[in-house]
Each structure stands twice: as C-alpha cells, then as structure tokens.
Design a protein that fits this description.
The structure is a single chain. The protein has 199 residues and is an alpha/beta fold. It has one domain: P-loop containing nucleotide triphosphate hydrolases (Rossmann fold). It has 9 helices and 5 strands. The protein has a 5-stranded parallel sheet with strand order 2-3-1-4-5, with helices on both faces. Helix 7 crosses helix 8 (143-167).
Length: 199
Amino acid sequence: MKYAILIGEPNSGKSTFANQFVKMAKDRGLFISILKTGNSIREYVKKNPNSDIKEKMNRGELVGNEIPKAYMIEEIRKYNLLEKKPDLILMDGTPRNLSQKDEFKPDVFDRYGLELHSIIFISLSVEEIFERASNRGRDDDKVEIVRCRIDNFKKDTLPMLNYYKITNESKFRELDGKLPVEDKVRLKFIDEIINSILR
C-alpha cells in the first residue's frame, strides 16, 4: 500500500485540502483513507484533561511521538486497512519532525508494508496565518500561541520537509495554501497527484 504525508503550516487548511482530495479521488474511482493525528490528540486531551499534553498544546508545542504513533497503529488495525487495501493512506499532519520520521518508518510504515508515494506541503505566509487565526477564534488561535506554533514549525517541521525535498525530490509537492478551493491551479495540483496514484 502507498501512503502520502500531508503537512501544512499553521492554519493552512490541511483538513479542507484532505477532504477535497479524498472527494476528487473518489470521483476518479480511488479509495483514500485519512489518518488525522490532530483529532486523536484532541480526543486524548478530552479524556485526560489533567495531562501535560494539554499544556503543551496550549503553548503551541508538539506533543511527542507516542500518541500519534499509537493512533496510527490503532487506526490501521481498527479499520482493517491491510485487508481493505486503500489506494492511498493520507497521513494528515504526521510525521511532523525528524524524530517522528525516524521512529515511525520502522515502527509503522515498514511494519505494515507502506510505501511512500508523496509528501504534500501546504505553505502559507505569516500574514495569512495570523489573518486566518483572527477569523477562527479557537483556543489555539491566540496570537501568542500562533506565534509559538510558527516558531515550532520552523524549528521542528521545516528540517523534516527539507530532508524529504532533498531525498525524495520527485515525490515532494508544494501548494500555496492561499489558493481558493476551486482555483484551477489547486485543482490541477490535486489531479496530478491522483493521476500519479492511478499509474
């Protein structure tokens, strides 16, 4: 099975992109499964409100490797993905740094025979990140938290993206997150990924 890594700057619209991608792929006869680690972390915090994970999230920090790794393994098993064999598993937001990349490859990707198909990066300017944050009003969209998320993205996630860009240049794809959902460039970008899956 193939998997793609979907990474975006803060407030870049990863979930919107993921849903659009899955719908367009379905219209072309493809079965795409999404694993959203952000949802698993928020669910963990709800069940464990006194954990230090919540404090890390409130500071805009990454929460470590164990929760997202355990979530991926649980989802692969729960939905019998090895038997259903989706055309692509979309890893929404993970791995997020070099440490996760190194740990998840043997423990998850190699373990379940998953082959890297592509790395999808949604970029967004700092000005646009703050503008979107001001319009959403979530707890993690406060100015100081957004600034911390941006700093952590540059410190933790960009080195991983640079690694993939160098070692897997043909699989690395970047989209301007400011493009509207129905923009022709955006639609073509998604179509090209779908075509590469169909080959």
